[in-house]
Every structure is written in structure tokens, then in C-alpha cells.
């Protein structure tokens, strides 16, 4: 069986888990703490970043975007109309553009700050950066998320899904990152009903069930986190 090295509240890991669930790919999920940088893990994946997918033949595929492309290359054709990467080159460009937006821009401006400051630091040893959260970083992320929420609303006002008529990797990436922020109660959903409606559609999918069941020890999620009706 394939293996996915991931961490429950790593946004990139959540994206990979959604891909596997949507594509019906069975994989053994192994928890890897991002801050541990274990030598056995680094020997497989020198960057130490998550997630890391190990296919059944032993091939190590690192990083969320590379995993998405690899699984589309090797399994996408068999999905037919449910394929998460369009066949049309122009549409593929739009999916890749939005993947970069959420896996890089949204991550750097919002989800990485909040996941690190409000979750990771609770469990990290002091010598590795653990301790009280940086409230300046949290305030910046809370401000930044409003811009991204507005952009999602703008896209969905024109399209059925973020990149076009069908759900793609772009929707899964955006929803995966937002799900961590939503757990923490830092998404101002009341500011954009269009974005809220889109997110409710994605989180109602069977692939989202495992994510909604995740819990941070000692930290309850926002009241609507696992409410499919919001």
C-alpha cells in the first residue's frame, strides 16, 4: 500500500489527503511532526517538508504540488469526467495558477502563520521555537485572510468552481488551507456569503470527513467547523 507522511493540521498535508480521498487511492497515513526533522525522514525527503507520498513501487514524491501532478499523471486518466486536472491546456494553466496562489501565497500570508503560531508552537520544544504565539503574526494573518476570501468570492461569482465548470485541484488546495484557519475560528465567513457557500459545498464532500474529524489536543474547533450546513 502507498504511504502518505503528513501532519493532521499541516495545510499542505490536508490537500494531499483530499486528493487521495477524491481519487480513491488507498494509502497508509503516517503522522510526521513538521518540526521534528527526524533523520530517517530526511534521508527520504532531504527538504523535510510535508507531505511526502510514497507510491506502492517505492517512489518518493515530495510536496503538495508535485504529488498532485504525479497522481494526475499516473491515475488521472482513469477518473474520466471526475479528473481533477483538466485536459485542456488553457484550463490546466488556470488550475496551476490557482494552485500557486493557495499553496504558496495563501500559505505564506495566512495558513502557515496561524498553524505555526496557534497549533505547532503548543507542541514544539522551546529549543525548536515552541512557546507563546506571536500575536503580531496572528493579526497579520487575520487581516490577510479577508483579501483571499474576497478573491474566492470573486471567482465563484463568475464560475461554478474556482478554476471553471468542474471541481479541480484548485478547490481542494483552497479548501484544505481554509479548513485549518476555520478550525481556529479565524475565517470571517460573514464577510462573503459567496465564498462561504463554495466552502460548504467542498466540505460536504465525503473526502472531507476525515479532516473534519481531526482535533488538536486541548483545543476545540470553531462551533461550525464540522457542521455541513454551516
From TrEMBL:
Lineage: superkingdom: Bacteria
The keyword Transferase appears for this protein: yes
Keywords, sorted A to Z: Transferase
InterPro entries: Glutathione-S-Trfase_C-like, Glutathione-S-Trfase_C_sf, Glutathione_S-Trfase, Glutathione_S-Trfase_N, GST_C, Thioredoxin-like_sf
Record carries keyword Phosphoprotein: no
GO biological process: glutathione metabolic process
Residue span(s) of domain GST C-terminal: 88-225
UniProt-listed Pfam families: GST_C, GST_N_3
Domain GST N-terminal residue range list: 1-79
One GO MF term: glutathione transferase activity
PANTHER family registered for this protein in UniProt: GLUTATHIONE S TRANSFERASE D10, ISOFORM A-RELATED (PTHR43969:SF9)
Assembly and oligomerization: Homodimer.
Name under which the protein is recorded: Glutathione S-transferase
Organism of provenance: Microvirga subterranea
Amino acid at each position: 500500500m502507498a504511504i502518505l507522511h503528513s501532519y493532521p493540521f499541516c495545510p499542505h498535508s490536508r490537500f494531499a489527503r483530499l486528493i487521495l480521498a477524491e481519487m480513491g487511492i488507498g494509502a497508509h497515513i503516517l503522522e510526521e511532526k513538521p518540526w521534528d526533522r527526524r533523520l530517517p525522514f530526511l534521508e527520504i525527503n532531504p527538504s523535510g517538508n510535508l507531505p511526502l507520498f510514497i507510491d506502492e513501487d517505492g517512489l518518493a514524491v515530495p510536496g503538495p504540488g508535485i504529488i498532485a501532478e504525479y497522481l494526475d499523471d499516473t491515475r488521472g486518466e482513469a477518473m474520466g469526467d471526475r479528473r481533477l486536472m483538466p485536459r485542456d491546456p488553457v484550463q490546466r494553466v488556470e488550475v496551476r495558477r490557482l494552485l500557486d496562489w493557495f499553496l504558496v501565497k495563501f500559505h505564506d500570508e495566512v495558513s502557515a502563520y496561524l498553524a505555526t503560531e496557534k497549533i505547532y508552537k503548543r507542541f514544539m520544544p522551546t529549543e525548536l521555537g515552541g512557546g507563546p504565539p506571536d500575536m503580531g503574526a496572528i493579526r497579520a494573518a487575520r487581516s490577510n485572510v479577508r483579501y483571499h476570501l474576497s478573491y474566492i468570492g470573486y471567482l465563484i461569482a463568475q464560475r461554478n468552481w474556482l478554476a471553471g465548470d468542474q471541481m479541480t485541484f484548485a478547490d481542494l488546495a483552497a479548501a484544505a488551507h481554509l479548513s485549518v484557519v476555520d478550525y481556529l475560528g479565524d475565517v470571517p465567513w460573514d464577510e462573503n456569503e459567496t465564498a462561504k457557500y463554495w466552502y460548504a459545498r467542498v466540505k460536504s464532500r465525503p473526502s472531507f470527513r476525515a479532516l473534519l474529524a481531526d482535533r488538536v489536543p486541548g483545543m476545540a474547533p470553531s462551533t461550525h467547523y464540522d457542521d455541513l450546513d454551516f
